[in-house]
Design goal:
The complex is a heterodimer of chains A (about 110) and B (about 110). In chain A, strands 2, 4, 5, 9, 10 and 11 form a 6-stranded mixed beta sheet that branches. Chain A has a 5-stranded antiparallel beta sheet with strand order 1-3-8-7-6, with no helix packed on it. Chain A is built from no helices and 11 strands. Chain A is an all-beta fold and about 110 residues long. Chain A starts with a strand and ends with a strand. By secondary structure, chain B is mostly beta strands. Chain B is built from no helices and 11 strands. In chain B, strand 4 and strand 5 form a beta hairpin. Chain B is globular and about 35 Å long. Classes of the chains: A mainly beta (about 110), B mainly beta (about 110). At the A-B interface, strand 4, strand 5 and strand 9 of A face strand 5, strand 9 and strand 10 of B.
Chain lengths: ~110, ~110
Protein backbone atom coordinates (compact mmCIF):
# COMPACT_ATOMS: atom_id res chain seq x y z
CA UNK A 1 0.00 0.00 0.00
CA UNK A 2 1.37 3.37 -1.07
CA UNK A 3 1.60 5.79 1.87
CA UNK A 4 1.12 8.76 -0.47
CA UNK A 5 -1.35 8.09 -3.27
CA UNK A 6 -0.73 10.23 -6.34
CA UNK A 7 -3.14 10.52 -9.27
CA UNK A 8 -3.44 10.40 -12.15
CA UNK A 9 -0.43 8.27 -13.12
CA UNK A 10 -0.46 9.46 -16.72
CA UNK A 11 -1.89 12.57 -18.31
CA UNK A 12 -1.75 13.52 -21.99
CA UNK A 13 -3.36 16.86 -22.84
CA UNK A 14 -3.37 19.56 -25.49
CA UNK A 15 -1.52 22.83 -25.09
CA UNK A 16 -3.73 25.39 -23.36
CA UNK A 17 -5.71 22.92 -21.24
CA UNK A 18 -5.81 22.97 -17.45
CA UNK A 19 -4.98 20.00 -15.23
CA UNK A 20 -4.81 18.99 -11.58
CA UNK A 21 -2.61 16.37 -9.92
CA UNK A 22 -3.56 15.03 -6.50
CA UNK A 23 -1.63 13.51 -3.62
CA UNK A 24 -3.58 11.93 -0.79
CA UNK A 25 -2.71 10.13 2.41
CA UNK A 26 -4.25 9.04 5.67
CA UNK A 27 -1.09 10.25 7.43
CA UNK A 28 -0.21 13.76 8.52
CA UNK A 29 2.82 15.42 7.00
CA UNK A 30 4.91 18.19 8.54
CA UNK A 31 5.59 19.46 5.02
CA UNK A 32 5.06 18.40 1.44
CA UNK A 33 7.26 19.04 -1.56
CA UNK A 34 6.45 19.01 -5.27
CA UNK A 35 9.18 18.15 -7.78
CA UNK A 36 9.38 18.11 -11.56
CA UNK A 37 11.76 15.75 -13.29
CA UNK A 38 12.83 15.45 -16.92
CA UNK A 39 14.22 12.16 -18.34
CA UNK A 40 17.79 11.48 -17.25
CA UNK A 41 17.86 14.45 -14.86
CA UNK A 42 17.35 14.83 -11.13
CA UNK A 43 14.08 16.06 -9.61
CA UNK A 44 13.87 19.85 -9.34
CA UNK A 45 12.12 21.26 -6.30
CA UNK A 46 9.13 23.40 -7.31
CA UNK A 47 7.62 24.26 -3.95
CA UNK A 48 7.36 23.28 -0.30
CA UNK A 49 4.07 23.68 1.58
CA UNK A 50 4.09 23.60 5.34
CA UNK A 51 0.90 25.10 6.79
CA UNK A 52 -2.51 23.43 6.56
CA UNK A 53 -4.67 25.24 3.99
CA UNK A 54 -1.64 26.94 2.44
CA UNK A 55 -1.83 27.97 -1.22
CA UNK A 56 1.30 28.85 -3.19
CA UNK A 57 1.51 30.09 -6.75
CA UNK A 58 4.43 29.75 -9.15
CA UNK A 59 3.45 31.45 -12.44
CA UNK A 60 0.81 29.09 -13.95
CA UNK A 61 1.22 26.49 -11.18
CA UNK A 62 -0.91 26.57 -8.02
CA UNK A 63 -0.11 24.31 -5.09
CA UNK A 64 -2.46 23.64 -2.22
CA UNK A 65 -1.91 21.85 1.10
CA UNK A 66 -4.98 20.35 2.75
CA UNK A 67 -6.26 21.79 6.03
CA UNK A 68 -5.36 18.56 7.85
CA UNK A 69 -1.96 18.34 6.12
CA UNK A 70 -2.82 14.92 4.68
CA UNK A 71 -3.27 15.88 1.03
CA UNK A 72 -2.06 18.29 -1.61
CA UNK A 73 -2.81 19.28 -5.17
CA UNK A 74 -0.97 20.85 -8.09
CA UNK A 75 -3.02 22.76 -10.64
CA UNK A 76 -1.52 23.91 -13.93
CA UNK A 77 -3.34 26.56 -15.94
CA UNK A 78 -2.94 26.75 -19.73
CA UNK A 79 -0.40 23.94 -19.94
CA UNK A 80 2.50 24.30 -22.35
CA UNK A 81 4.76 21.68 -23.99
CA UNK A 82 7.54 22.82 -21.68
CA UNK A 83 5.48 21.54 -18.72
CA UNK A 84 5.99 17.97 -19.93
CA UNK A 85 7.72 15.81 -17.34
CA UNK A 86 7.35 13.59 -14.30
CA UNK A 87 5.71 15.37 -11.36
CA UNK A 88 6.43 13.95 -7.92
CA UNK A 89 4.91 14.81 -4.59
CA UNK A 90 6.93 13.94 -1.51
CA UNK A 91 5.94 14.35 2.12
CA UNK A 92 7.91 14.50 5.34
CA UNK A 93 6.07 12.45 7.94
CA UNK A 94 5.10 14.36 11.06
CA UNK A 95 7.26 12.16 13.28
CA UNK A 96 9.57 10.74 10.66
CA UNK A 97 12.89 11.65 9.22
CA UNK A 98 12.62 10.71 5.57
CA UNK A 99 10.72 11.74 2.46
CA UNK A 100 7.80 9.58 1.32
CA UNK A 101 7.25 9.82 -2.43
CA UNK A 102 4.06 9.45 -4.41
CA UNK A 103 4.18 7.19 -7.48
CA UNK A 104 4.50 10.20 -9.79
CA UNK A 105 2.44 11.67 -12.62
CA UNK A 106 3.80 11.55 -16.15
CA UNK A 107 2.50 14.64 -17.92
CA UNK A 108 2.68 15.08 -21.68
CA UNK A 109 1.51 18.35 -23.21
CA UNK A 110 1.04 18.21 -26.96
CA UNK A 111 1.33 21.29 -29.15
CA UNK B 1 23.13 28.33 -4.50
CA UNK B 2 20.98 25.19 -4.31
CA UNK B 3 23.33 22.97 -6.24
CA UNK B 4 24.12 19.35 -5.58
CA UNK B 5 26.82 18.10 -7.95
CA UNK B 6 27.14 14.46 -8.92
CA UNK B 7 29.91 12.77 -10.89
CA UNK B 8 30.10 11.01 -13.20
CA UNK B 9 26.92 11.75 -15.16
CA UNK B 10 27.09 8.38 -16.92
CA UNK B 11 28.86 5.16 -15.91
CA UNK B 12 29.06 1.76 -17.56
CA UNK B 13 30.64 -0.98 -15.48
CA UNK B 14 31.11 -4.71 -15.61
CA UNK B 15 29.85 -7.03 -12.90
CA UNK B 16 33.39 -7.54 -11.55
CA UNK B 17 34.35 -3.87 -11.52
CA UNK B 18 34.71 -1.54 -8.55
CA UNK B 19 33.60 2.04 -9.07
CA UNK B 20 32.49 5.02 -6.99
CA UNK B 21 29.82 7.66 -7.39
CA UNK B 22 30.52 11.09 -5.94
CA UNK B 23 28.27 13.82 -4.63
CA UNK B 24 29.13 17.30 -3.37
CA UNK B 25 27.18 20.18 -1.89
CA UNK B 26 28.32 23.51 -0.47
CA UNK B 27 25.06 24.69 1.04
CA UNK B 28 26.06 23.77 4.58
CA UNK B 29 23.45 20.99 4.61
CA UNK B 30 23.94 18.40 7.33
CA UNK B 31 21.81 15.63 5.84
CA UNK B 32 22.70 13.79 2.64
CA UNK B 33 20.96 10.96 0.84
CA UNK B 34 21.38 8.32 -1.83
CA UNK B 35 18.36 7.29 -3.90
CA UNK B 36 17.93 4.76 -6.69
CA UNK B 37 15.42 5.45 -9.46
CA UNK B 38 14.14 3.21 -12.21
CA UNK B 39 12.54 4.68 -15.33
CA UNK B 40 9.15 6.37 -14.78
CA UNK B 41 9.18 5.40 -11.07
CA UNK B 42 9.71 7.57 -7.98
CA UNK B 43 13.11 7.62 -6.27
CA UNK B 44 13.69 4.86 -3.70
CA UNK B 45 15.66 5.79 -0.60
CA UNK B 46 18.88 3.84 -0.04
CA UNK B 47 20.86 5.67 2.66
CA UNK B 48 20.58 8.73 4.89
CA UNK B 49 23.52 10.48 6.50
CA UNK B 50 22.93 13.01 9.25
CA UNK B 51 25.89 14.99 10.58
CA UNK B 52 28.21 12.65 8.68
CA UNK B 53 26.84 9.56 10.41
CA UNK B 54 24.77 6.88 8.70
CA UNK B 55 21.29 7.12 10.18
CA UNK B 56 19.22 5.06 7.75
CA UNK B 57 20.11 2.04 5.59
CA UNK B 58 17.03 0.83 3.79
CA UNK B 59 18.20 -2.80 3.72
CA UNK B 60 20.48 -2.11 0.78
CA UNK B 61 22.70 -5.02 -0.40
CA UNK B 62 26.31 -4.82 0.77
CA UNK B 63 27.54 -4.44 -2.81
CA UNK B 64 26.55 -0.78 -2.29
CA UNK B 65 28.74 0.92 0.33
CA UNK B 66 28.19 4.56 1.27
CA UNK B 67 30.81 6.86 2.71
CA UNK B 68 30.63 10.40 4.04
CA UNK B 69 34.20 11.77 4.26
CA UNK B 70 33.04 15.22 5.42
CA UNK B 71 29.93 17.37 5.62
CA UNK B 72 30.12 18.36 1.93
CA UNK B 73 30.88 15.00 0.32
CA UNK B 74 29.03 11.75 -0.08
CA UNK B 75 30.32 8.73 -1.96
CA UNK B 76 28.71 5.48 -3.03
CA UNK B 77 31.15 2.63 -3.60
CA UNK B 78 30.00 -0.06 -5.99
CA UNK B 79 31.35 -3.61 -6.21
CA UNK B 80 30.11 -6.77 -7.90
CA UNK B 81 26.89 -5.21 -9.13
CA UNK B 82 24.20 -7.02 -11.08
CA UNK B 83 22.51 -5.88 -14.32
CA UNK B 84 19.32 -5.19 -12.36
CA UNK B 85 21.23 -2.53 -10.43
CA UNK B 86 21.25 -0.41 -13.58
CA UNK B 87 19.34 2.77 -12.73
CA UNK B 88 19.63 6.51 -12.15
CA UNK B 89 21.39 7.09 -8.82
CA UNK B 90 20.43 10.35 -7.18
CA UNK B 91 22.13 12.23 -4.39
CA UNK B 92 20.21 14.78 -2.35
CA UNK B 93 20.89 17.05 0.58
CA UNK B 94 18.86 19.04 3.09
CA UNK B 95 19.57 21.36 6.00
CA UNK B 96 18.43 18.62 8.34
CA UNK B 97 16.54 15.34 7.95
CA UNK B 98 13.31 17.26 8.63
CA UNK B 99 13.88 19.79 5.82
CA UNK B 100 13.14 19.95 2.10
CA UNK B 101 15.63 18.05 -0.07
CA UNK B 102 17.54 19.25 -3.11
CA UNK B 103 18.60 16.68 -5.68
CA UNK B 104 21.62 16.38 -7.92
CA UNK B 105 21.44 15.60 -11.64
CA UNK B 106 22.02 11.93 -11.03
CA UNK B 107 24.41 9.30 -12.34
CA UNK B 108 23.02 7.02 -15.05
CA UNK B 109 24.56 3.63 -14.18
CA UNK B 110 24.56 0.70 -16.58
CA UNK B 111 25.86 -2.67 -15.38
CA UNK B 112 26.87 -5.03 -18.18
Amino acid sequence: TQLLEQSPQFLSIQEGENLTVYCNSSSVFSSLQWYRQEPGEGPVLLVTVVTGGEVKKLKRLTFQFGDARKDSSLHITAAQPGDTGLYLCAGLMEYGNKLVFGAGTILRVKS
Amino acid sequence: DTEVTQTPKHLVMGMTNKKSLKCEQHMGHRAMYWYKQKAKKPPELMFVYSYEKLSINESVPSRFSPECPNSSLLNLHLHALQPEDSALYLCASSQAVSSEAFFGQGTRLTVV
